[in-house]
Structures are given as structure tokens and as C-alpha cells.
Design a protein that fits this description.
- The complex is a heterodimer.
- The model of chain A has no long low-confidence stretch (mean pLDDT 95).
- Chain A is mainly beta.
- Chain A is built from no helices and eleven strands.
- Chain B is mostly beta strands.
- In chain B, 0% of the residues lie in helices and 55% in strands.
- Chain B is built from no helices and eleven strands.
- In chain B, the strands form two sheets. In chain B, strands 2, 4, 5, 6, 9, 10 and 11 form a seven-stranded mixed beta sheet that branches. In chain B, strands 1-3-8-7 form a four-stranded antiparallel beta sheet, with no helix packed on it.
- The N and C termini of chain B lie far apart (37 Å).
Amino acid sequence: QQQVKQSPQSLIVQKGGISIINCAYENTAFDYFPWYQQFPGKGPALLIAIRPDVSEKKEGRFTISFNKSAKQFSLHIMDSQPGDSATYFCAATLPGNTDKLIFGTGTRLQVFP
Amino acid sequence: KAGVTQTPRYLIKTRGQQVTLSCSPISGHRSVSWYQQTPGQGLQFLFEYFSETQRNKGNFPGRFSGRQFSNSRSEMNVSTLELGDSALYLCASSLNRNTIYFGEGSWLTVV
């Protein structure tokens, strides 16, 4: 019940296209949903995050859409660029005195020019 | 502002040996967490420390241990290494869950 399921495992998008990565969860106690971007040889970097009382959050070309009733959330990358090629992880945290992140399995995004 | 620093970056150990990995958090961050990243299991939470106290622990065997010092620096130790312990070990420091920053990791290869 503490899992976060992520799809697709890999994604190939043409430059300028929209990249969409989906995540689903079962535990309704999760109260914070961040997305991380990881380049080869680097640690994950926080990209954007959302709380379940908000249905959408946009930061530049990155948007999180959140569907509380369906227990799903997704990352949309508009106008995808070759520099966006990386692995993306969704994550969730439980409330309380912890920063523990429960990660999805990751999506490897490749953006071709 | 310096980021999360992990040392060593790369190391090779033999089965049965032990290893200690070090993490220096961002200045002012009192919470440090450790994660194991492998191609098969992804990113898995090991443990979390705050003010020298372990406040959360993942589902790893007792061979995996950690500690935090009074200056918030943290170490993790893996004893009796197994081939399956080969992984990228990531340290993260945070002020709160909105500000969790990862280091570049320590690549451990067990042969």
C-alpha cells in the first residue's frame, strides 16, 4: 500500500513535443507528491511538487496534474527539449515527522531533435 | 551555498568486507536520509536521521547501519558485503520535505 506505480518505463519524444509521465498510488494518507529529475552520474534533483488539495501546478514548461479521486498524478513537459533527456521519478511522502520519500520506478525520457 | 557532499564517489570492495560512506549535508540542514539505487529495485529508502537520532528506517537487513553526528554529518556502514549490495548510495539533506536535496552519490561495487 506504500507503493507508487509509475509508467511508462521509457519514453521517446520529438523535440517540441509533450512528454507525459503517469503515477498512481493506493495510500490516501500520502500528502506530498514531488517529481525528481536525474541525469546520468548525478543525484536526483527536485523538479516540481504538489499537495493533494491542488489539482494542477505549473512551473515553466513543467506541469503536475493531480486527480485525487483517481489517486493518480502526472507530469507534463511541454515543448520538450533534448536537454530534458533524463530519468524522471515521481514520489510521495506520508505526513508526520519524516522526510522519507517513496519513489516510483522511474521513466527514462529521450528527446530527439 | 555548497550542496550535499558524499565521499567517496567510487569504491570497490570484496564480498565479506565492510564499507563506510560519508555525507556532509547542506549547511543548516539537520535532517539526513540515505537511499539505495539499483537498476532492479530503483530508489529505496534506507534510513533517516534528525539531530543525531534515527527517526525512520527502511526494510534493509541489520548489516546496514548509520549514524549522525552533532554537526549533522552522517555516515552509513554496510558490513559483510554481498554482491547484491552493489549500488549507488545516495544521501539527501533537508530543512523540511519541500527542500530535500540529494548528493551525487557513492558508487559501490562489490566483487
